[in-house]
Amino acid sequence: MKHIMRCPKCKEYTMKEICGRCEVRTENPKPAKFSVEDPYGKYRREAKEMEGTA
Ligand SMILES: [Zn+2]
After folding, report:
1. Of 9, 37, 39, 54, which sees the most CB atoms within 10 A?
2. What is the pTM assigned to this prediction?
């Protein structure tokens, strides 16, 4: 699965692990953003696990 990365130096978004301009390692910009899109996903998974063990 591809995910967007960001260069900490030039703030450019890229799919690469190394920024082509700065040749520095890119980092994952705020992974928390993705969990906000599905705030109940965690609870759904927990409910499913409880069903399986009950
Ligand atoms: Zn850069």
Report:
1. 9
2. 0.51
